[in-house]
Amino acid sequence: AIPRRAIRPRQSECNAFTSPGDRGANGSAASRPATGRVSFRDLCFPYSGAGALAYKNWRDSLSDNIGLAAIQLPGRETRFSEPAYEDLQQLISDLGHAITSHLTKPFAFFGHSFGSLIAFELALWLKRNNQPTPNQLFLSSFRAPQLPANKPHSHDLPRHELIEKLKSYNGTDDSILRNEEIIDLFLPALRADLKICECYQSTSSPAVEVPITIYFGEKDELVRSESLSDWRRCTTHSIEFKNFEGDHFYLNTEERGKLIDHLTSKMIGKSDTTMDKMSSKV
Fold this sequence. Notes:
Blueprint: H1 15-18, E1 40-45, E2 66-70, H2 88-99, E3 107-112, H3 114-128, E4 136-140, H4 159-169, H5 174-177, H6 180-199, E5 212-217, E6 239-244, H7 256-281
Parallel strand pairs: 1-2, 1-3, 3-4, 4-5, 5-6
Helix pairs in contact: 2-3
């Protein structure tokens, strides 16, 4: 069955899975196509209100054998005309059905903030549905699933208060916040994403069967470091915690280079291990 609002409703959207970056001729978030040298793929999930272009500058910093695939959700960028999801489980189910045919190579998930929640829940969905699962989860700046969000919530704030809050987060470009037309396009998806994040709390403490790396900014006021330790209960494998200078949006600063270097080194190691296992079976 075709999902109600699949993450890839048109052929042009499929480009967002393989090489996000500068806009291609078809209007999707695409840069140069992945080559046959790609042996490992990193699927990236954006933070609240953002889209595939959040990762537009990452492609050229990765090793040639790593393919970058940014997920383009409804309600943003090339999909402004579509309503954003307000129900996490519906989002995960539709996304899971949409990407399974693309999981033909070993892969990892990277998510930042809201994207970390999607990456974790999607990994669980793939496991429950007997689909290929990621070799590694890279989760950035999101509290452990067992913990409730800090209050007061932001998703239901009046418009002007939410905009002021966004300014304090230091994660939204000023050109967006100053443009009334753009901000009105941007806010519905942002509110929907924030609502999912702020209302989420796992009661079952499920665990994935893959290693997890947790990234965080040392000065993050939104996600305190003490809210991360319970991620240990969410995997049956190893877990690593790595900090960076900066706040919640450290990955949009000069620290991004260090983050990508660390991601690359981990994924190359996963790729080499996978190839060794494949060779041993020949």
